[in-house]
Amino acid sequence: MNSSKEELLKVLETIAPFIHRTPVLTSKLIDEMAGCEIQFKCENFQKMGAFKMRGAMYAISKLSEDQKNAGVVTHSSGNFAQALSLAAKSLNVPAYIVMPESAPEVKKAAVRTYGGKITECPSTLQDREATANRIMKEKGASFIHPSNDMNVILGQGTAATELLLDHPELQIIVCPVGGGGLIAGTAISTHVLLQDCLCIGAEPMEADDAWRSLKSGKIESNASVLTIADGLKTMLGDVNFPIIRDHVSEIIRVSEQEIIAAMRLIWERMKIVVEASSAVALAAIIQQKDKFRNKKVGLIISGGNVDLTNLPF
Amino acid sequence: MNSSKEELLKVLETIAPFIHRTPVLTSKLIDEMAGCEIQFKCENFQKMGAFKMRGAMYAISKLSEDQKNAGVVTHSSGNFAQALSLAAKSLNVPAYIVMPESAPEVKKAAVRTYGGKITECPSTLQDREATANRIMKEKGASFIHPSNDMNVILGQGTAATELLLDHPELQIIVCPVGGGGLIAGTAISTHVLLQDCLCIGAEPMEADDAWRSLKSGKIESNASVLTIADGLKTMLGDVNFPIIRDHVSEIIRVSEQEIIAAMRLIWERMKIVVEASSAVALAAIIQQKDKFRNKKVGLIISGGNVDLTNLPF
Predict the structure, then answer these.
(1) Stretch(es) of chain A classified as CATH 3.40.50.1100
(2) Is there a contact between B186 and B172 (Cβ–Cβ < 8 Å)?
(3) E strands along chain B, which residues?
């Protein structure tokens, strides 16, 4: 990682016309409960409802014109499929999305709404990779990984870049850890823009692969992922892991009850809809009060795409 | 009603230090669905989560010093009880809140959190009025009605004042109709600040007293109030009715299904938590597409205090 401030500003400038500069909110009551001052960077208000729009946008914008004409492909059943579809659409690039046959119809419909072309396949990782490979060959499309791609990582980091430019007083920045794209991008932005600011990750106890990876020094996987934070079930990759290892000072693990309580607190007090994965970061701050006491803290609200018919409260 | 622009600005200036200037949000997708351009004035982000903070604040600020020392009293089991408690607290004024014994414990707790002193009584209107009268005599406290008080009305109107100052291009402003305080204040602000802008009310079919009142020319009541929009069950009063009659161009009635669909749309697409009463206004716009087509519309989101354990979806 050899980024400079100029490079990070250039990344932001590249995608700025296509994304929202999301608002930063505060809550006096949550600050009182947590014992610190939190700036919430609200990516739930981002286009398609999550930070993933940033990474998808930057990765596509870095392709050559020929590559853009041939299109992009990814396999994802979640937010990144929608993000890549919408980002591609705004640059007039074809987007091929490999989704498991078993993916919920509502997610397929969302991808189609954003203009993505879906190819269904059996739900194993092998099948998904094989299908994506076939499309790469047939269409000449460029594969874009949801989290283990340096341009995706730099794009995701622009949420932190915006937050740190607005709030250079921050002492700690906290964000959830899933596949590692957001936390790696956040760590780069923090390290480059504000060297004295710590970058801390937050992870469900039930999918603590990143916590174990930092401990063992190699990428660990999850035997089971029984967490409500469904954006955080995936494991790290070889591109983002070294960045996380070098620039994330620690990962805090939280229980499912702590996640649900933090999610409810945000909904009730801040009146915003956030997904469980976002609540993981607040849960970590509330659990580790002593660590954050009286600190100026930045928190990345990763997104707000939830199934309202299936809430945990 | 003989307000001038200067007077309305003075009202806003008086309460501005004690309230939030709430954000105005937009949604491209909702605009496409509705066929018009909507500016959402988000009082769900107001202090204590609803516009009622504005009216309570202004009514208290208009009292003499002696009156402030003696305190204020109201009977309410809803948002106004919390609003008056918090507004009184910020001016160091005692607030006596008469609540029915049957009110949910969570609402009593919220009033206490904001510093209100609760007196419980049987739940009939007679009992509540008698209890409030007793407190007025014993404490010398001033009674402040939640919606039928000219200063409360002027205070509620500041949401529209802010919206119209920011968006002088608006052609129609829509807000929900409950006890009549918000719509009367909105009508005054609209009439004074932007004479060519229409003010339209939105009301549940199941509590359509205001619609019938405008038709009959006198204040009508509801035989039943089987609506999810629990802030809109109350009837108009003799102070706000003449204002509504003279300056609200029409009231649109919506079904319970339309309210729930609009509420879900706001939550899912705008990622904000709004109460059912607020969704009534969007439901009206969607129902009457022809009336609003291509218009620049302002919509007052009244509040975001909902019971997350009892949602309609």
Answers:
(1) 5-50+153-301, 53-143
(2) no
(3) 24-25, 37-42, 72-75, 95-100, 117-121, 142-143, 172-176, 198-204, 250-254, 296-301
Closest-CA residue to B227 (of B202, B246, B251): B202
Q: What is the CATH number of domain A53-143?
A: 3.40.50.1100
pLDDT digits 0-9 by tens, B291-302: 999 999 999 999
What is the pLDDT at residue A78?
Answer: 80
Does an H or E element contain B47, and which? none
Q: Which of A268, A273, A313 sits opposite B267 (nearest CB)?
A: A273
Q: In what order do the strands lie in the sheet with B37-42?
A: B24-25, B37-42, B296-301, B172-176, B198-204, B250-254
Residues A268/A220, Cβ–Cβ less than 8 Å: no
**B313 to chain A, closest Cα gap in Å:** 5
Q: Which chain B residues touch A267 with a CB distance below 8 Å?
A: 273, 308
C-alpha–C-alpha distance, residues A30 and A39, integer Å: 11
Q: For each successive 10 residues of chain A (313 residues), what is the average pLDDT?
A: 89 98 96 98 96 98 98 90 96 96 87 94 91 96 97 98 98 98 98 97 98 98 94 95 98 98 97 97 98 98 94 93
Taking the C-alpha atoms of residue B110 and residue B118, their distance in angstroms, rounded to an integer, is 11
Measured CB to CB, residues of chain A less than 8 Å from chain B are 23, 44-45, 49, 264, 267-268, 271-274, 304, 308-309, 311, 313
Chain B: residue whose CA lies nearest to A301? B271
Q: Indicate the class that CATH gives domain B5-50+150-301.
A: alpha beta
Q: Does domain A5-50+153-301 have CATH number 1.20.140.10?
A: no
pLDDT of residue B222: 94
pLDDT bin (cut points 50, 70, 90) of residue B1 is low
Give me the pLDDT at residue B77, please: 76
pLDDT at residue A1, as a whole number: 57
pLDDT > 70? residue B7: yes
A309–B313 C-beta distance less than 8 A: yes
CB contact under 8 A, A271 and B313: no
ipTM for the whole complex:
0.94
Length, in residues, of chain B: 313
Paired residues of B272 in beta bridges = A272
